TrEMBL record:
Family statement: Belongs to the RFT1 family.
GO biological process: dolichol-linked oligosaccharide biosynthetic process; glycolipid translocation
GO cellular component: endoplasmic reticulum membrane
Pathway in which this enzyme or protein is active: Protein modification; protein glycosylation
TM annotation in the entry: 39-63, 75-99, 111-127, 133-154, 174-191, 203-221
Primary role: Intramembrane glycolipid transporter that operates in the biosynthetic pathway of dolichol-linked oligosaccharides, the glycan precursors employed in protein asparagine (N)-glycosylation. The sequential addition of sugars to dolichol pyrophosphate produces dolichol-linked oligosaccharides containing fourteen sugars, including two GlcNAcs, nine mannoses and three glucoses. Once assembled, the oligosaccharide is transferred from the lipid to nascent proteins by oligosaccharyltransferases.
Localization: Endoplasmic reticulum membrane
Entry protein name: Protein RFT1 homolog
Biological source species: Carex littledalei
Classification of source organism: Eukaryota, Viridiplantae, Streptophyta, Embryophyta, Tracheophyta
PANTHER family noted in UniProt: ENDOPLASMIC RETICULUM MULTISPAN TRANSMEMBRANE PROTEIN-RELATED, PROTEIN RFT1 HOMOLOG
Length: 238
């Protein structure tokens, strides 16, 4: 639901641009798709970089030790990955549905039925073995299968008209998020003590704040033009 307005807006943009088959329109369509995926990845990678390392702390602060010492933090860690896969799937499928012809849409629906069957089987198996974590894992795998299908379609769509690389969708400076993720994981294991949570949490939090600040600064300096364009577009929409 959080990403639904963005997906609907992306769909409208993709559909409008795909109606024009000129080279300029195809180039704009490619740029729009790259921009949409880059924005999704920029937000999703931040969640993925810091969410898992601070899931326990968040549950502990909000709901207390009873919940934080249970399954909830682990489920939240897995959910961080599910969020980015959900957003990626929504955007890539919005593109597919906006530009595909009737035959391609029918083929897509057939594959969705197959993915749904796989999802149901995984649901039964994983929920029995892993509970809530299993449910999130089954949903994540389902999203990944759908993303792969849409990605193959996208590559085929731009095959003859314009080169397209998913590498262009990665925000420049993403390696800072990768190293921040490693740093905060180590910080949680080394510094955060459950029996002395309130004494050790400030250290873990401080490391996260530093990593977050460095990562955001690095990404903004490399993607300043893109981010400012998004901000201007948002202000214009308001």
């Amino acid at each position: 639901m959080v990403f639904l307005p963005f997906e609907e807006s992306s769909y409208a943009t993709f559909a409008k641009l795909s109606s024009d088959k000129s080279q300029e329109a195809v180039s704009q369509l490619k740029s729009s798709l790259i921009g949409a995926l880059k924005l999704i990845l920029m937000i999703g990678l931040v969640v993925l970089a810091f969410g898992p390392s601070y899931s326990y702390a968040l549950i502990r602060i909000l709901y207390g030790q009873k919940w934080s010492d249970g399954e909830a933090p682990l489920a939240l860690r897995y959910y961080c990955f599910y969020v980015i896969s959900l957003a990626m799937n929504g955007t890539t499928e919005a593109f597919l549905h906006a530009v595909a012809n009737e035959t391609q849409l029918k083929r897509s629906n057939n594959w969705l039925l197959i993915f749904s069957a796989i999802y149901i089987i995984l649901n039964v198996l994983l929920i029995r073995s892993a509970g809530a974590v299993g449910l999130i894992t089954a949903n994540s795998i389902n999203m990944l299968l759908r993303i792969v299908y849409s990605a193959v379609f996208i590559k085929q769509y731009f095959k003859n008209s314009s080169s397209f690389s998913f590498r262009e969708c990665m925000p420049r400076g993403w390696l800072f998020l990768f190293f921040s993720s490693l740093t905060t994981v180590i910080s949680e294991r080394v510094f955060l003590k459950r029996e002395k949570f309130w004494d050790t949490f400030p250290i873990h939090l401080s490391i996260g704040v530093v990593c977050f600040s460095v990562s955001c600064t690095a990404i903004y300096s490399r993607e300043k033009q893109f981010i400012n364009r998004i901000i201007r577009t948002r202000k214009h929409a308001d």
